[in-house]
Amino acid sequence: MEIINNYFEEIHSTESIFRQPKIENDALFVPCKELILMGGHPLCQLKKIYKLYDCYMIFSNAYHSERSITEYLDSTSLECSTITKEPQKIVDIFSETIPNNAIKFEFEGRLVDPMASISEWIVYANSFSLHFDSQKSETLK
């Protein structure tokens, strides 16, 4: 596994697939597939990697995590565009107070188990890192 710290603003997650997050100590681990890296990301610049097929977004010293999801009508495919259920808010980590030095991270994507659209995922944490296997990535030709 390789690790890149920071550069959250250089990722694109709209088409990414997320699994249920895990919480260990004070960190939020978000398993992710098909994460797109923007041109300013060091992996894109140095290694010409632009898509990670299997990675973890890790938010350290996480104070708060909540996401708005809407489940798909046909729960057998992430390609389904028909949404029927009412949106629901899921709070993974709740803190009464969020320190002034906490950073607000916002992203969106698709969720498996349940199959759903994530219209907004907000995390307040002190830092962000990306853990990945470069063997499971796609490079620019």
Please outline the helices and strands.
Elements: E1 2-5, E2 11-12, E3 17-18, E4 22-24, E5 27-33, E6 35-37, H1 42-47, E7 49-52, E8 55-60, E9 64-71, E10 88-93, E11 103-111, E12 116-125, E13 127-132, E14 137-139
Parallel strand pairs: 3-11
Antiparallel strand pairs: 1-13, 2-6, 3-5, 4-5, 5-8, 6-7, 7-14, 8-13, 9-10, 9-12, 11-12
Please, could you describe this protein's structure?
The structure is a single chain. The chain is mostly beta strands and 141 residues long. The protein contains 1 helix and 14 strands, in the order E-E-E-E-E-E-H-E-E-E-E-E-E-E-E. The protein has one helix spanning 42-47; strands spanning 2-5, 11-12, 17-18, 22-24, 27-33, 35-37, 49-52, 55-60, 64-71, 88-93, 103-111, 116-125, 127-132, 137-139. Strands 1, 3, 4, 5, 8, 9, 10, 11, 12 and 13 form a 10-stranded mixed beta sheet that branches. Strands 2-6-7-14 form a 4-stranded antiparallel beta sheet.
Primary descriptors:
4-stranded antiparallel β-sheet, 141 residues, mainly beta
Q: What is the strand tally?
A: 14
The structural domain count equals: 1
Mean model confidence by pLDDT: 89
Structural class comes to mainly beta
Helix % is under 10%
Continuous helix count: 1
Instruction: Please describe the biggest sheet, giving its number of strands, its sense, and whether it closes into a barrel.
Output: 10 strands, mixed
Determine the strand fraction and express it as a percent band: over 45%
Q: Which regions have little confidence, pLDDT < 50, spanning 5+ residues?
A: none
Instruction: Give the radius of gyration.
Output: 15 Å
Order of helices and strands: EEEEEEHEEEEEEEE
Distance between the termini: 23 Å
Per the principal axes of the C-alpha atoms, what is the gross shape? globular
